[in-house]
Amino acid sequence: MANLALCDLLFVIWIPLKIAYHFNGNNWIYGEGLCKVLVGFFYANMYCSTAFIACISIQRYWGVIQPLSRQRKDNTVSVAVSVLIWLAVWVLTTPLFLYDQTVRVSSMDIVTCHDVTLRSQRELAAGYFLTMGILGFIVPAAVCVVAYVLMLKALWSSMTDEAIAKKRRKAVLLIITVLVMFLVCFSPSNIMLLVHYGLLLAQISNTGYDFYITTLCLASLNSCIDPFVYYFISEDFRKHIRNTLICRSQRKAERMRVSFNALKNSKKSKKSTYSSDSSGKTQSSSLPRGGGLDLAGAASQRDTLFNVST
Q: In the CATH scheme, what architecture does the domain 2-249 have?
C-alpha cells in the first residue's frame, strides 16, 4: 500500500509540467532532458501502479484463503517483491531515456514531447511499447481479474450466517469497485498505446490523438482515486490514518493547553505583582506623619494663646 502511494506521489509531482504542456498548445518549452524525465516518471508510475495493484489483489486473495498465515513471512515476501518491482520497472523504463522524446513540428511551429515519433525511431518505440503494454498491463490485469474472481467466489460461498453475510457483502462491493476502477482507468490508455504503436509499426496513420489524451486523463485519475478507495478497503490503512490524526490532535491539544497555562500563569503573576505594589502604597499612605501632627498642635496652641491674650 505504501509503495502504491509512493507511485502516486511521484506521478503527482511531475503532472503539472504535462498540464502546462497541453495548455501551451502542445508546445514543450522545458528542454529534452526534462521531457525524458516526465515521460519516464509517467510510464514508471503507470506500470508500477498496475504491478502493485496486482500484488495487492494477490495479497487480499491470500488473506481470504489463508487468514492465519504467518505475518513475518508475509512481510518478508512483500518487501522482497516490492524491491523487485521497483528495480524491474525502472530498468524497463530506461529505453525511454535512450532516444529523443522531443520533436519539432515545423508546420505548426511547436516542439512536441513524446507525441510525435521520428521515422528513424519508429521500430524501437513500437517494439518497446508493445512489450510494455503486454508485460505492464495485460499480465497484471489478468492477475487482478483472476484473483478478484476467486476471492468473490470464496466470499460468496461462505455467506451462510446473516451477520457474516452482511460484512461479506460490503467486502464484495469493495472488490468489485477496485476491479472496475482498475479496468476503467488503465484499459483505455493501454489499449490505445497498443493500437497506436501497432498502426505505427504497420505505417498506418492514426487520427485518434484526442481520444488518446482522454485515456491518459483516465490513467492519471487513478492516482487521485487510489487513496480514497484503499482507505475503505484496508482496515490497517484506516487505523494508521486515524492514529495519525488522533496523535496530531492530541499533540495540538497539548500544545494549546501548555500555551494557555503559560498565559494564565503570566496573567496571575502580573496581577499578584500589581496587588503587592498597591497594598504597599496603601500602607505607606495610612501611616501617621509626625511632622503634620506637630504643626497642627502648634497652630492649636497659637489660637489658644491668642484667645487668652484677647
A: Up-down Bundle (1.20)
